């Protein structure tokens, strides 16, 4: 089962290596990873998606808590948290297709952030499933390049 | 406020932590630190002959005293050589602080001479580590390292100090010791409801067993453990790491359990209806096949490390906390409850155990010069009071089986990592920590050769350790497995120690006393001579080459499925 872990850590050199190393050494696979600073510049948040059984999740949680630089670990269930990823996609867009693409972008509430002679670049955020659907639609126009961020999440309420 | 270099601040801080000895080996980037150390009045430096020896010695010192052991090595190869020793200490949760030199900050990452990514290499084996970038960081790093190493589940902390950080000056101000760090607050008090629950189970159990591990020693809870066992008449088995927490001569003692544990300890675990695990981690050498392990028992698990609870075995009543604190609370609760309703009668359980003890005792074979006989003689000669350090392999298991320990911190062995070469340097560390006690390294001819150069350390530093080599000319434990599971195909396990080395001459070459025993009737007098001699001694016991350690639970077998359990 997939779990989204939100890990608050001290913002110090080598902390990500400690967290990632722990995952690797205990045999846990990271599906997605996003790291950024929080509102407090001395603290960073690592958001990580792992696909594990309940028993392994408990081990990950406990082992993470043993790292001195880790301040807090929270499991964010899908139904009680807001989960977002960001996609930047560069799509081939000859003049004929352009209108159609723009329409799709509108429907998905994406944004066009760059326009070239033969391509347009789209920014879109959302939950994983929405981004997958969007990607599938774009594929028929020709995706030149696509980058997807790790998931970030916050609990609701 | 005082102007001083990073190196001087380091030594000042180490002195403030009460460090009395550093086991180390100098090198280029450590020059500023060694220069300050040259003048230190409070800290003794013990120069080992290899950095691995320094790490094991610091570890042995920590195990023997309970204090933090400190070792030091230079950058690159020096730090790499420490790794085995640090992993050994870490696996057995020993408080060790390692100080490593590093190339100058501007050279880090350039593949400079003797550069290695020490914090990177050691990351999986340390509890925490620091790579200092500024001398200002020294006081906090030293203070936090000692706090982290010596509290919670003990462990190894490494401080990597680039040479320019050691060399440059800053305004030093002493820092006060904090109780905790932002991300480090070990739970020491057990949850009251869990303790009540545990006591309820203990009182209603008719076949309880206490399974005590190294955590009981770390938390200095031997007295509490003894009280608990004796007040309710509960049998106690200990792991290799916990030998000594409960007197093995006591009628409630089952000795050690596990792969080479006593038959009766293993049977008791398998038949028990309640296993009370204290400061132990259900290692594979203890449990045998996990699915059948203690399948009739409920499990109470008391441990300071929440991650150990439920890691290998399903636990019914988890109690996270320090063994001493939890046991005190538990005893109080049990006393209160026992007044209201008397505990169960365990007579039947003891009768069963006593029958196992009679039927499957540990026994000394009576052919030739047997290693078991040597250990038993060492036990008698020292009246069970020596500090026994072991190497790893058959020698270690025989020592564990036949040296009945009754004092905590008197049996020192590399359990988790199983590091050959641990014994001699660890014995040196132990002897320096406890100079007034007899310290004996029970060695094998294989293990001793991995760190035998430390005989020079023992001689030069005047550390009179006794090294008893059970010389069977084989990597005995591996040979035993080859005999039992690989059709006696002794692939590369014969060391030919009857040919080379000549251990007596080796000892003499280092300036130690070398003795040899080839017949059973010599054992008595030679041990006397070794113990009387005022200085390091090595005794070469030419024991039966193909003696095996029994009983034995084959890997993957159920714990009650033992080979060679009966005479």
Structure in words:
The complex is a heterodimer of chains A (157) and B (567). Chain A has 157 residues and is an alpha+beta fold. Chain A has four helices and nine strands, in the order βαββαββαββαββ. In chain A, the strands form two sheets. In chain A, strands 5, 6, 7, 8 and 9 form a five-stranded antiparallel beta sheet that branches. A four-stranded antiparallel beta sheet of chain A has the order 2-3-1-4, covered by helices on one side. The longest helix of chain A is centred in the middle third of the chain and has 13 residues, at 54-66. Chain A is elongated. The mean pLDDT of chain A is 94. With 567 residues, chain B is an alpha/beta fold. Helix content of chain B is 39%, strand content 17%. In chain B, strands 3-2-4-5-7-6 form a six-stranded parallel beta sheet, with helices on both faces. A six-stranded parallel beta sheet of chain B has the order 11-10-9-12-13-14, with helices on both faces. Chain B has a six-stranded parallel beta sheet with strand order 16-15-17-18-20-19, with helices on both faces. In chain B, helix 1 runs parallel beside helix 6, helix 3 (51-65) packs across helix 17 (423-433) and helix 10 (222-232) packs parallel to helix 13 (323-340). The mean pLDDT of chain B is 97. Chain A binds chain B through residues 9-10, 13-14, 17-18, 21, 25, 55, 58-59, 62-63, 65-71, and chain B through 119-120, 123-124, 127-128, 131, 148, 181-184, 305-307, 310-311.
């Amino acid at each position: 089962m997939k779990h989204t872990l939100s890990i608050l850590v001290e913002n110090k050199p080598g902390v990500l290596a400690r967290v990632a190393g722990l995952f690797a050494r205990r045999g846990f696979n990271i599906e997605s990873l996003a790291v950024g600073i929080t509102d407090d510049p001395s603290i960073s948040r690592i958001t990580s998606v792992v696909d594990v059984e309940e028993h392994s999740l408990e081990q990950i949680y406990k082992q993470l808590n043993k790292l001195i630089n880790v301040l807090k670990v929270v499991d964010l269930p899908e139904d009680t948290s807001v989960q977002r990823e960001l996609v930047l996609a560069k799509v081939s867009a000859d003049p004929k297709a352009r209108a159609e693409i723009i329409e799709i972008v509108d429907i998905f509430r994406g944004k066009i952030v760059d326009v070239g002679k033969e391509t347009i670049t789209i920014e879109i955020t959302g939950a994983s499933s929405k981004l997958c659907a969007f990607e599938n639609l774009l594929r028929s126009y020709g995706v030149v390049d696509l980058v997807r961020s790790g998931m970030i999440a916050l609990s609701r309420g | 406020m005082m102007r001083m270099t990073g190196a001087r601040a380091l030594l000042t801080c180490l002195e403030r932590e009460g460090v009395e000895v550093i086991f180390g080996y100098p090198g280029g980037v450590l020059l500023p630190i060694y220069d300050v150390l040259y003048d230190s009045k409070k800290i003794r430096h013990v120069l080992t002959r290899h950095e691995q020896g320094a790490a094991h010695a610091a570890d042995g010192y920590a195990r023997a005293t309970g204090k933090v052991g400190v070792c030091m090595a230079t950058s690159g190869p020096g730090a790499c050589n420490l790794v085995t020793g640090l992993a050994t200490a870490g696996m057995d949760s020993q408080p060790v602080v390692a100080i490593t030199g590093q190339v100058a900050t501007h050279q880090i990452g350039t593949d400079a001479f003797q550069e290695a990514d020490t914090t990177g290499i050691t990351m999986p084996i340390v509890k925490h580590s620091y790579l200092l970038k500024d001398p200002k960081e020294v006081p906090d790093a030293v203070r936090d390292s000692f706090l982290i190493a010596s509290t919670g589940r003990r462990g190894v902390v490494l401080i990597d100090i680039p040479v320019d950080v050691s060399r440059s000056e800053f305004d030093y101000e002493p820092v006060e010791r904090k109780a905790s760090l932002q991300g480090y607050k070990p739970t020491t008090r057990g949850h009251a409801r869990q303790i009540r629950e545990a006591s309820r189970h203990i009182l209603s159990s008719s076949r309880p067993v206490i399974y005590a591990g190294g955590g009981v020693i770390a938390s200095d809870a031997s007295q509490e453990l003894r009280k608990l066992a004796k007040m309710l008449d509960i049998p106690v088995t200990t792991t290799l790491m916990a030998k000594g927490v409960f007197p093995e001569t006591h009628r409630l003692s089952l000795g050690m359990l596990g792969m080479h544990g006593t038959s009766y300890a293993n049977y008791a675990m398998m038949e028990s209806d309640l296993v009370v695990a204290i400061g132990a981690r259900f290692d594979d050498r203890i449990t045998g096949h996990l699915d059948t392990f203690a399948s009739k028992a409920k499990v109470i698990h008391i441990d300071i490390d929440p991650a150990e609870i439920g890691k290998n075995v399903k636990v019914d009543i988890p109690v996270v906390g320090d063994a001493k604190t939890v046991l005190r609370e538990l005893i109080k609760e049990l006393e209160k409850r026992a007044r209201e309703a008397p505990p169960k009668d365990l007579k039947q359980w003891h009768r069963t155990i006593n029958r196992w003890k009679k039927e499957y005792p540990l026994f000394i074979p009576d052919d030739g010069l047997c290693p078991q006989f040597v250990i038993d003689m060492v036990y008698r000669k020292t009246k069970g009071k020596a500090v026994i350090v072991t190497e790893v392999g058959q020698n270690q298991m025989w020592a564990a089986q036949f040296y009945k320990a009754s004092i905590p911190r008197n049996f020192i062995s590399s359990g988790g990592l199983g590091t050959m070469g641990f014994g001699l340097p660890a014995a040196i560390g132990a002897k320096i920590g406890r100079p007034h006690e007899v310290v004996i390294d029970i060695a094998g001819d294989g293990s001793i050769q991995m760190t035998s150069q430390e005989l020079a350390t023992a001689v030069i530093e005047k550390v009179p350790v006794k090294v008893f080599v059970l010389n069977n000319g084989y990597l005995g434990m591996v040979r035993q497995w080859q005999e039992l599971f690989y059709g006696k195909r002794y692939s590369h396990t014969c060391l030919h120690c009857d040919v080379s080395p000549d251990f007596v001459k080796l000892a003499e070459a280092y300036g130690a006393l070398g003795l040899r025993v080839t017949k059973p009737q010599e054992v008595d007098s030679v041990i006397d001579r070794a113990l009387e001699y005022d200085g390091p001694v090595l005794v070469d016991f030419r024991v039966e080459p193909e003696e095996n350690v029994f009983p034995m639970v084959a890997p993957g077998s159920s714990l009650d499925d033992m080979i060679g359990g009966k005479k």
